[in-house]
Design goal:
The chain is an all-alpha fold. Helix content is 78%, strand content 1%. It has a two-stranded antiparallel sheet with strand order 1-2.
């Protein structure tokens, strides 16, 4: 894409990796707080139901998709990523601070959508377009291997940091939102000095509406058929993750009674991060089909253990397999999608990417999870209210899309093998 592999590889110096690491990591820390702890926040502070949690995730997914479609195209139109990343992170951080003063589920959902607009502008649209601009077919797997470590590392940082807080206290949440908000804004300010746009990035002369709608044209879909098939597969993969992820921490803490779940999860996260770091290179050497199937097998194995077991060691192994499969799969899908995005159009194709990665999974996955938990056991809170108790059925449901995807992947591989023979 664009310049030769040698030229693009030359650009991946210390400045690029520094900017990628701090923006990627801080962005994922902010998303982890939203995706995994906003659920805990409304569960603990306002006794939210599974339907409330599902509604919040779904609303955020819609806003994330619309924002990325529009703002990714706008960044192509003006030929800039740096400004959207830096200013976006600054305002993103300010919006997180507002959560320190929210007092209801409805306001949390509304403000989550506002925060998601700025976060998706800065991260989903601009940051992802930026690392697409910077890479090529010779280093995409390496970039994605590092980039895909960020969610697990951010989970580790957030889990470890939250250990010192009493999450049943509103004051603890206020402190958390101040810390995350300020750090996110500071990273945005730092980006003004360290981020460099790709040298070949130029403003798109087409009208803005044409830029926004370009990747949705039937002719474009036909010309880039493989890209859209990979996005469809990515959506199925994401649905599996979103069936259980919104309820995961609550399941560990309440369903399994593991108040020290952080101590159990931390080693699993570190090991999964190490696996993901090296796994990205497998894609560079062996390609998509070869590297996807082990990810799906790890996921299924992890789901099976988490569904069948309740004790510490099996839960740890199941969590390790699940997280390794999840992050390695994200790495593989991220690399193959970036490899198939047309040259110079990274921004306007972030919209269709986010539909496959966030919008479709965010609408379907949590709804399935809420349906699976519709008859979940209720527990009595200290104030006389009740809360639902997540159970292991979310992992059985999550396995279904992965098994479907695994079957298709194996069938395609067999067809290719027979064709060669």
């Amino acid at each position: 894409m664009g310049n030769s592999g040698a030229e693009k590889s030359h650009k991946l110096g210390g400045r690029f990796w520094t900017a990628m690491l701090i923006f990627g990591l801080m962005g994922q820390i902010a998303w982890v707080v939203e995706n995994m702890y906003f659920n805990v926040f409304i569960y603990k502070m306002f006794h939210a139901t599974a339907a409330d949690i599902s509604a919040m995730v779904m609303a955020s997914a819609v806003v994330a998709a619309l924002t990325t479609i529009i703002m990714g195209a706008v960044s192509d139109k003006v030929g800039r990523r740096k400004a959207f990343m830096s200013v976006g992170y600054i305002i993103w951080g300010i919006s997180i601070l507002v959560f320190a003063y929210i007092k209801s589920i409805l306001l949390t959902i509304v403000m989550d959508c506002v925060m998601t607009f700025f976060g998706s502008t800065a991260n989903d649209a601009a940051y992802n377009a930026w690392i697409t601009d910077k890479g090529d077919e010779t280093n995409r797997g390496k970039i994605e291997g590092v980039n895909s470590m960020m969610p697990l590392l951010s989970i580790l940082i957030v889990f470890g940091g939250f250990m010192s807080f009493n999450l049943d206290s509103s004051e603890a949440w206020k402190t958390i939102y101040y810390i995350i908000g300020i750090l996110t804004a500071v990273i945005g300010i730092l980006g003004l000095f360290i981020i460099e746009d790709a040298p070949g990035l130029k403003a798109d002369p087409k009208p803005l509406f044409s830029v926004i709608t370009y990747s949705f044209r039937p002719s474009v879909c036909k010309q880039n058929r493989k890209l859209y098939l990979y996005l469809l597969a990515f959506a199925v993969f994401g649905i599996s993750i979103q069936i259980f992820m919104p309820y995961l921490i609550i399941y560990y803490e309440k369903g399994l009674g593991m108040s020290d779940y952080v101590l159990i999860m931390a080693p699993a996260i570190l090991l999964a991060a190490a696996v993901t770091f090296f796994y990205g290179r497998l894609y560079d050497k062996k390609g998509f089909g070869f590297s996807l199937i082990p990810c799906l097998l790890m996921l299924v194995a992890g789901y099976t253990l988490l569904y069948l077991t309740r004790t510490t060691v099996p839960v740890f192994i199941g969590s390790l397999l699940m997280m390794s499969g999840y992050l390695c799969g994200m790495s593989v899908f991220g690399a193959v999608i970036r490899d198939h995005i047309p040259e110079g159009m990274a921004g306007q194709f972030q919209g269709v990417r986010i539909i496959g990665q966030v919008f479709v999974p965010g609408l379907i996955g949590p709804a399935i999870g809420a349906w699976v938990l519709r008859d979940a056991e209720l527990i009595l809170n200290n104030d006389g209210t009740t809360s639902f108790l997540p159970n292991a059925n979310i992992f059985a449901a999550a396995a279904v899309p992965v098994l479907l995807l695994l079957g298709v992947a194996l069938a395609v591989g067999l067809m290719k093998k027979n064709k060669k023979a």
